[in-house]
Design a protein that fits this description.
Pfam family, one: Methylase_S
Number of domains: 2
Distance between the termini: 74 Å
GO molecular function: endonuclease activity; hydrolase activity
Subunit structure: The methyltransferase is composed of M and S polypeptides.
Protein name: Restriction endonuclease subunit S
Strand content: 15-25%
Radius of gyration: 23 Å
Shape: globular
Oligomer: single chain
Number of strands: 11
Structural class: alpha+beta
CATH topology of the largest domain: Adenine-n6-DNA-methyltransferase TaqI, Chain A, domain 2
Keywords: DNA-binding, Endonuclease, Hydrolase, Nuclease, Restriction system
CATH class of the largest domain: Alpha Beta
Strand order of the largest sheet: 2-10-7-8
Helix content: 25-40%
Length: 216
């Protein structure tokens, strides 16, 4: 059976939909006032979910939640958060690797909570690959403001390997993407040093320093 990223899958792999691997929950609409018995709590929003699976938690907003809402919209280690809308961010996904006690999430975010024998890391990597391939953009049928609604997200086709295979794939990708990220950081430092050297070279030349040195 073919799918968004495959023509054929390894033997023993099943094919299903995202909803077969995780429950999909849309977050809460922004509430700026206390209804009388609410608590003010931090929440995840689209800006916290950056490209390539990066979850940024140093820029935090707060809003009001009821106690039951905060329990229902909790964020736990193993969850996957997916951006629901917006031209620049819809479909971005990130794996949550630690519990965020007392946090909720806004309705710009869908939370995937893996069920049964499913690893959130595998789900997150799969969604990252789908977005990079252009599938998410085509799937959302973008005309004006795109939205990857909870219903659409739940229906996305996905491969369903065994839990052992999911973990092996996720472990491999964790190692290899960490190596690549390190290489990117090193290259960025080199580029910055090269830019500084270029600027210093130009400054020295136009102020006569390089000319004097070379003439001497």
């Amino acid at each position: 059976m073919t799918g968004p990223l495959w023509v054929a899958l390894p033997g023993g792999w099943l094919v299903g939909q995202v909803k077969n691997a995780a429950t999909v929950t849309l977050g809460k609409m922004l509430q700026s006032k206390d209804s009388g018995s609410d608590v003010c709590a931090p929440y995840l929003r689209a800006a916290n979910v950056q490209p390539d699976g990066v979850l940024v938690l140093d820029d935090v907003n707060e809003m009001w939640f009821g106690d039951e809402e905060l329990e229902k919209l909790s964020i736990r280690a193993g969850d996957v958060v997916v951006v629901e809308g917006g031209q620049g961010g819809f479909g971005r996904a990130a794996y949550v690797d630690e519990d965020l006690p007392g946090w909720g999430f806004q309705n710009s975010i869908n939370r995937l909570r893996p069920t049964g024998d499913f690893d959130g890391r595998f789900i997150a990597f799969y969604l990252i690959a789908l977005r990079a391939s252009g599938f998410i953009r085509a799937y959302c049928n973008v005309v004006s403001m795109p939205h990857l609604t909870a219903e659409k997200l739940a229906r996305i086709p996905m491969p369903l390997p065994s839990l052992e295979e999911q973990r092996a794939i996720a472990d491999h990708l964790d190692r290899e993407t960490a190596r690549i990220d390190t290489l990117i950081e090193e290259q960025q430092r080199f580029i910055e040093l090269a830019r500084e050297r270029r600027s210093a070279l130009i400054t020295a030349a136009v102020t006569g320093q390089t000319y004097v040195l070379e003439s001497a």
